[in-house]
Amino acid sequence: MAAYSPTTDIRRKDLDHASFEGTVLNDEQKKEPSFSYIRSYILPYSRSRRWERVVRLLEYFCKGADVSLDHFVTYQLPGQSDQHQATAWVSDRNEINQSSSAPSNFERVLSAPELYKVLQQKVCGMAFSPNRDLEPANNTAICRALRIYINHANGLCILGLIKTAPLWQAQGFRELLSYYVLTPKPRIRVYQSSWWNGCFIMHFNIPFHAISNSDRKDTRTIRDKGELRHRFDLSFLDPSNSTDVRTGDRPGSIGPAFLHQVTCSFMLTGRSESDWTAVCLNEDSFDDQQKLNTDDELETDGLGPDGEVDPILDEPSLNGVHLPRPYGLAFLANQFVTVVEHQWDIEHQFGESLERNSPDSVGELPGQLSAKDIKQWTRQSVNRLEMVRNSISILVGELDRFLELQVIFGQDDIPRGPLFQSLVDDGLAMKSLKSLRESRTDLEGVERALEQLQVRFERIQSELGTAKRIMPRNQLLRRRPNRKVAHSREIKACASIIRLCVFWALGSGLCPSVYFQSDNHLSPHFIAVMATCTVNGLQDLLGKAGLDTPVPDFPGSDIVHNPQDIFRAYLADTLQKLVEVDKAVAYDAIQPSNMTGMGDLVIVSPRLRLKDIKPKDLVSDLAHRLPRSPPFACPIPDGIHLRVLSSPNTLSRLLLPYVHDRGSSYGYDASVGLVDADKAEGPRKKVIVEFSSPNMASEFQVSHLRSALIGAYVANIHAGMGWDVVKMNYLGDWGKQIGLLAAGWQRFGSEEEFQKAPLQHLLQVNHKIEELFKPEQEECKTAKAEGKDATEIESRGLYAERDVFFKKMEDKDPEAIALWQRFRDATVEDYKTSYARLGIQFDEYSGESQVSAESIQEIEAALKEKGVYEEHEGAWRIDFANHDAKGLSTAVVRYRNGTTSYLLRDLAAVLDRYKAHSFDKMIYVVAMEQEMHFHRVTKTLELIGRKDLAEKIQHVPFAKITGLLDQFKHAQLLSDYIDGCRSVMQAGMPEDAEDPVFVTKTDQSLESVGLSGLFIQDLNHKRTTSYACDAKIMTAFEGETGAAIQNCYARLLTTLDGKTDDIDYGSLDYSQLETEDYSEVLRIMAQFPDTTYASFKTLEPTAVIIYLGRLVDQVMVTLDDDDEQDWTDREGAMKARMALYENARQVLENGLRMLGLSPWSG
């Protein structure tokens, strides 16, 4: 049967009829074998694969429901069980004239079949009379508001709603049911429907996670995805699971906990503010206190008229019925408050687990945790926290879009959105909108708290990677030696290795005796160092270190740029011979480890593709058969993984010369940027990186600051990878805003003030003229909102002055250009000085003004030739909907007064840049809000036949900084932000710190460390993640912070002062570096190229910062150890240590410079 659609010939009385199954469908239609209420009502006229899937899922979800509804009998549905019974509440409270009969209120909780009967026989029949012309007596307004609340909706409920809903509500129900059943994706929309005569729709789909102590599995099922909502057992949060044998108590136990996927869906639709329906599909079955309980009566304590309580708003009904939009906003605000509470519950549960089981309290429990317990606890905790954080981030993004694109708050906090302007005087609506903004901030706060927990779990993963018995936390984080223990450091290192093998392998019979490779076959003191930057030089060095040469050759291996690939090649060669697989398969089965102490390389057994042996059995077999000889130590079985550690005596002999020879290029692979990778001296690929790009004579926005931080990193990492980089600052130096500035200069400009402080004075002028311009702008907005023509308003006053001056600029009028050039020159000079303080030097200060007329003509000619250009009311535009890009809407290219648009100038700039640079890639580091603009740019280039250029363009988006430090809130210039960083650092510098601080308190030092705090805090967030600046993080000297990294660098400089000049890598006593802490420093240093390459592929700097944090932690621990030892008459050991620290310093410097930071220098 065909679905109903806007083109179907439906009589007016059918359109208004209360139920879909009423008069619209005749008996003959219902008897058709293919007839389906769901397909007929839900499937839109314009079909798609998505809607076909929605219908298919709903039909399965409601399978058998028609029998139960028709005969009012119990029927077991795919989505129904005794454990979760659907319950419902209905109110058709109407405001009608006094002579009419009183409204029906159903205070009893309804079952699913009862809900259908109520909707079918009573509520629908009363609340929606077919007579649309009914006028009330005594001038009393008629308000017909139907509210339906369903908890844990099953197929009976869904089908009942469909059968009893009017056709004009079809679009609203499609949105409600498709999002509720198909996917837990957030959606917050208020819009006018195009369905038949049109109606307004508020649709909110709010998925989130909630925690409870009840193991209540959702037994509702969807055919192709199993259970409708998942729940996750959090028993891993209580790894100790210690029980008192005498009492059976578990004093350290948190108790059972389960994480539930939850979705709350709400739809409100109506054709007027006096005729609407609201439906809420909620899920609180996981909660011990549910809004509706079967066989309970709704509370009737007199709090509302007739004692009615509205479970949708979770409060007593007020006198009368709310207007629909305020009602819907009140629901949304309440729901977000609930979501925030549940997220804090999750944070509390994970935080309590961390406090109870982290190393400082494990020792107090009756039992002891093994390395395996800790590994499972931290891994699962990180996975679940990541899942919850991702859910919160997506939900916040959807709320942002709603507030920014639909509500649109003005500077006076008054909503400007078309559907929200009229709510200014509605107290409930404004209260709800304010609450939504607060909830958004709260959600970011809990997301940050969860992120901090995740970081702590990951740090424990890293620190407890070795399988030693758990240490107290202060030893875990600092790893200082216990002064009460008399054993030497060497004995403790041996004990650590023994425990490692015992914990991981002894239980399975592996490594029954620990094998230590003897150093007798080596010549540890006098290994001749060759130039390791060539394959031949590396071969010589490895041969001297006792390894077979040449290094086995494998596709994808790059031993010249990545020392890990040397070890990987040797391991792959051994592995291939043991299991007899293809070379590529063996090499691909070996992955680098991302956890300190958990092996340097990991053999992932399923990747070997062996069919006749189980992965775990294969791991066990390989653990026995892998040779215990250089360059590897005893392997560690770990489920389907076999973790392999590099031998300490090989590691130091290889890595220190390797890093030293490469110096500032270590970590990079310059061949990546070659046009031909086989021609080392050949031409390099060119990339233009456009970033920061502030507007002329306007405040330097925080978005320009974040673009500068991210853009510097993007440019630096490309340069390190061998690309020819052009760093470009594309100033907003053209357009109507310059015309407005000129009008301001005529009124408020002062040559004397301009000479003193040009940029500050231009800002003052700009502020004054913008204030003067506001009344005209408001007049124009009001006219457009009322549907009036604003042309006359825009042809007079400041509008006219602005447009006339800009037209003169475009016509190259000498006086206009001369004034503009003065403004631009002053802006560029000021920015050059400020960017230099950030460590950024641009190759070009380009701008919209630099776009050539020839390229503009070339773009417009191509648009006309390809039939893309359309004239509309005197302007030229592109309607992307006519070119298979509906989502890009319509864009003006040239305005009706003849001036060019931002889109046209950007398109022409692409041609200009390609003519000047012949770039291979052009990267725009611009805020996420500009995403549609860059899609338009690339799509337009494709439409005019320049797909070759479109494919070279990459938009690197970033989210907002949502909260600023007090020192930044009044910043207007870039220099203000830099001064603010210095002030923050000065205020946060510890006076009497427990640990020594090695950076000094000079102005230069404070500015350097303060800027590092800003850079690292920003870059340590994913680009598309919003965050708030935190002074405590900026100034902290522990953790992954700029202050901690620079403090470590300063300490290394102090340690190395005057002790590196006579280091000879050919004669070092490398045996002095084979203890545990030194080996850990070396292992982390070896991972830098892998980290850099991974960061380059994603252009996410977070991985680099995490890496630097690990290196800093280990270096500080090792230096603490060294400070407590007597180095008198130990010249060989001293030189070896200085070589290690000098190369660690080099790696830190390389990482800092990649991120755009200058290493601390005093």
Automatic annotation (TrEMBL):
GO terms for cellular component: mitochondrion. Keywords: Aminoacyl-tRNA synthetase, ATP-binding, Coiled coil, Ligase, Nucleotide-binding, Protein biosynthesis. InterPro entries: Arg-tRNA-ligase, Arg-tRNA-synth_N_sf, ArgRS_core, DALR_anticod-bd, Rossmann-like_a/b/a_fold, tRNAsynth_Ia_anticodon-bd. Its EC number is 6.1.1.19. GO terms for biological process: arginyl-tRNA aminoacylation; mitochondrial translation. It catalyses: tRNA(Arg) + L-arginine + ATP = L-arginyl-tRNA(Arg) + AMP + diphosphate. SMART domains: DALR_1. GO terms for molecular function: arginine-tRNA ligase activity; ATP binding. The keyword Coiled coil applies. Pfam families: DALR_1 (PF05746), tRNA-synt_1d (PF00750). Residues 436-470 form a coiled coil. It comes from the Eukaryota. Residues 290-310 are annotated as: Disordered. Belongs to the class-I aminoacyl-tRNA synthetase family. This is arginine--tRNA ligase. The lineage of its organism: Eukaryota, Fungi, Dikarya, Ascomycota, Pezizomycotina.
